[in-house]
Amino acid sequence: MRKAEYYTVKTAVPEPAASHYESHTSIDITSTTLEPEGRTEVVVHVSSTQKQKSSLHAFPDRPASFYQDSYDAEPFPTELQDMINSMPAHCRTPQVLRAMFMAAISANTALDEPLSPDIKIENRIDDTPCPDWEFHYANKMWYGKGVPRSDPAKVQGCDCIGPCDPNSSTCTCVLRQNAFVHLAPSFEDSNGFLYNEKGCLKHDGFPVFECNANCLCSSECQNRVVQKGRQCSISLRKTKNKGWGVFAEKRILRGTFIGIYAGELLVQSEAHRRGKVYNRVGRTYLFDIDAFHLKALANDDADVDQETGWKLLYTVDAFHVGNFTRFLNHSCDPNCDISFVYINEHDIEKPLVVMFAARDVAAGEELCFSYFGRMDSDDEGKEAAGPGDAVYAPCHCGAKRCRGRLFAS
Ligand SMILES: C[S@@+](CC[C@H](N)C(=O)[O-])C[C@H]1O[C@@H](n2cnc3c(N)ncnc32)[C@H](O)[C@@H]1O
Predict the structure, then answer these.
(1) How many domains in the chain?
(2) Most buried among 48, 278, 318, 322, by the most CB within 10 A?
(3) How many angstroms does the Cα of residue 9 sit away from the middle of ligand 1?
(4) ipTM value for the complex
(5) 243 C-alpha vs ligand 1 centroid, how far in Å?
(6) What is the distance, to the nearest Å, from the Cα of residue 126 to the centroid of all Cα atoms in its chain?
């Protein structure tokens, strides 16, 4: 007789912390064979424990969701992966694995985005239950060797009372934002914050300076969006020929914050070394921080690239640690775009790489961005330039004007 398997996943989601905590995920699996039916009941309990962090990044007392935490990249937490790999075979059913993956996501992000909708995992293509357990799920940045930590004392905050006024002529956050918008070559006559009243990004392509943990303004301030976490509903789904992808569960408005491209922040020597390895396997999660405003601010340094007058310093690698954004596939007609966002970071070279909806997205649409960077309408039909040692793979984005290939690294 066929054995029925029942599973339950319980996720203990902690209360938002009032101070500065980090979390660790743990899993308890209980497997009971119920007689006389011979059914197996597997109960998986995923919980997240909190531990107070060192005072290294201590800001004034604020909810945990206000912090742009960063951790040292090594060693990564691997308890979860180790536990899955050592689970008895009868517990490793597709349903249990998928439910554990979803529960681990919500446990690992409970502190920094307690109000975010759960991420569903679906596969209508084959029998793989969930993406490979090859990475640690986190929304935070993890600093690799040689990457300097942020210095909270150098992060400039405003002293507004209540929410900041976007038309203020004295708010330091409004003034800083304006200065950077005016620096752009495609300067649009935009003053004030880059978010509208609904929290949607008004203009692509400018660096965004959110109010931070040193600001006195309230949590309702219009200039606090990314730090409040994801609001849109998304799922991870297996695609026919691009591996796993990210899909909109409900309609998403243009300019909506989708997610931080979280991962390890690497110096160039390490990014190059890993890039060569990823080239060989034909799958990469590297993203260069090559923002136009960094090029515009570049000093005349002997060390810079002679052609661009600028030197790339950091790359994000989401292979070993990251969140759902590492599953965003490439499209030649993308509905998402990257903006560089600063929250609790004083170093202009170390913005967060953040995904926003580039247009209204219908429920069920796949969320994609261009791996070649922003393309203007003038660029259509042109060959997209990848890095010098790029390895190209066929593109399956399905866009009418597909360029036919994407670089795998
Ligand atoms: C950052 S990962 C995206 C997530 C990936 N689908 C997965 O399952 O892990 C990038 C890799 O996804 C695949 N990919 C992304 N966009 C694609 C596209 N338009 N056509 C074909 N493969 C694509 C390529 O293997 C690429 O190296």
Answers:
(1) 1
(2) 322
(3) 30
(4) 0.99
(5) 6
(6) 26
| Beta carbons of 163 and 221 less than 8 angstroms apart | yes
Whether 108 is covered by a domain: the verdict is yes
Position of tokens 């921080």? 289
pLDDT given for residue 23 in this prediction: 52
CA–centroid distance, 285 to ligand 1, in Å, is 9
- How many whole angstroms from 13 Cα to the centroid of ligand 1? 31
The verdict on residue 386 lying in a domain is no
* pLDDT tens digits, one per residue of 58-91: 344 444 444 455 555 566 677 777 777 777 777 7
Question: Ligand 1 centroid to 12 CA: how many Å?
Answer: 33
Q: Are 25 and 120 in contact (CB under 8 A)?
A: no
Distances (CA, A) of 99 to 93, 138, 323, 400: 10, 17, 17, 36
Range scoring the smallest mean pLDDT among 33-47, 212-226, 266-280: 33-47
The CA distances from residue 368 to 122, 158, 210, 330, in Å, are 17, 35, 25, 5
- Residue to mutate, 101, 242, 284, ligand 1, most ligand atoms under 8 Å from C-beta: 242
Q: Ligand 1, closest atom to CA 282?
A: 27
Residue 146 lies inside a defined structural domain of this protein: yes
Per the structure, the complete domain to which residue 350 belongs is given by 75-375+399-408
Nearest residue (by CA) to ligand 1, atom 1, is 285
Protein residue with least CA distance to atom 24, ligand 1: 283
How far is residue 283 CA from its own chain's centroid? 18
Report pTM. Answer: 0.84
For 281-334, write each residue's pLDDT tens digit. Answer: 878 899 999 887 887 776 655 556 666 667 889 999 999 999 999 999 999 999
For 344-386, how does the pLDDT look when each residue is reduced to its tens digit (9 = 90+)?
999 999 999 999 999 999 999 999 999 887 655 444 444 444 4
User: Which CATH number do you get for residue 243?
Assistant: 2.170.270.10
The residue to mutate among 132, 277, 330, having the most atoms of ligand 1 within 8 angstroms of its beta carbon, is 330
Nearest CA among 187, 193, 234 for reference residue 336? 234
Nearest CA to ligand 1 atom 23: 242
